[in-house]
TrEMBL record:
Residues 115-153 form a coiled coil. This is Uncharacterized protein. It comes from Amborella trichopoda. Keywords: Coiled coil.
Amino acid sequence: MVVLTSKVPISVVPSVEASFEPYIPSSEPLALVPQEPAVIAEVPPLVVATNIAIVRDRATALKVVRYDKENFDQFKEETLAQHQSLMRSYDKKKPTLLSYQANLKKEDLAYFTEIKAAKEERERLDIYIHQLKVKQEQRRVEARSKFQDLEKLNSEVALISKMSNQVT
């Protein structure tokens, strides 16, 4: 964390003089020097102190980063070792699990086929039960009809008996 000791931002320099005449050393040709104006700035002591504090903070930060990098490298190695161990374990268990999965699929198909056959059998039995109930109801209707016929005959016999008793 960088803490500035000045309330003036570092990018603001209070004493600046502009010079539009470029400084050209005598050993270099004039054509190689850019023709832009140069700015000469005087850096106050507060800015220099701030820059020194920033450099110290950066040095401390670099030490922390180096320490964090060492921890990260150790963490990375441990994580890589754990990952490799898990992958080896997975590779050992994978064929067994795949075989087990294939067996489960076969069993599932067999159960599905058996369930389908049982449902078809149940449908056939439901139809048969329905047919039996229809026949049972038809027999009951016939029995009621026969019982009514019998009662009618009994009443006729009783009437004939009564009439024959009267004749004799």
